[in-house]
Structure of 30S ribosomal protein S4:
Amino acid sequence: MARYKDEQCRICRREGQKLFLKGSRCYTDKCSISRRNYAPGQNGQKRKNYLSMVLN
């Protein structure tokens, strides 16, 4: 089974919630989701568009 060896905090920020992948760091104020509550990357701070209805 393969391991994901990239940044764990980046995954949390992409999902928008704490996944507790870094162990005790996620319980402190140093957690990146509490510092930067937006997705990682160049376009991360843009607003996500959530559709209330799905068009068929």
User: Anything to note?
Assistant: DSSP finds two helices and no strands in the chain. The chain has one domain: 1-41. Helices lie at 8-15, 32-35.
